[in-house]
């Protein structure tokens, strides 16, 4: 993936401080950052919450890049990366499945498939967290359409954690 590092200034990198402070991520124990790219968000979460463990799940080349970044950050004992595709079965058993800026560029059917995969992996005890930028600071005008999509995937919105221009939707299985 030559040049990837030079071409990406991701939203998770820009929004990580807001996302980290929006929720008590440390209470989860284990998280999987589905489509987590270079690991920026996971690294920020692991740095802030010393008891948290996590993995980035992304395509093989991206997962390898994330693993190297996590290792370089000195977090290999609590973090790592898994090569995979969010359209396929996801590793089960984590308490939280993060979807940061993953759904916005997908059509409804693909977004629904990704949400269902996360819901299956989360089971009854886990949660899915959809992290998206909203149109206006604190306005959350975009959330009704996303809520309908979430519900069509068999999930319900348990809570919305406001982080200014960023909303963290906490979802659970019905």
Describe this structure in words.
GO terms for molecular function: O-methyltransferase activity. InterPro entries: COMT-like, COMT_C, SAM-dependent_MTases_sf. One of its GO terms (biological process) is methylation. It comes from Actinophytocola xanthii. 36% of the residues lie in helices and 26% in strands. With 174 residues, the chain is of the alpha/beta class. The protein has a single domain (4-129, 145-173), classed as Vaccinia Virus protein VP39 (Rossmann fold). A seven-stranded mixed β-sheet has the order 3-2-1-4-5-7-6, sandwiched between helices. β2 (53-58), α4 (60-72) and β3 form a beta-alpha-beta unit. α2 (11-21) runs parallel beside α3.
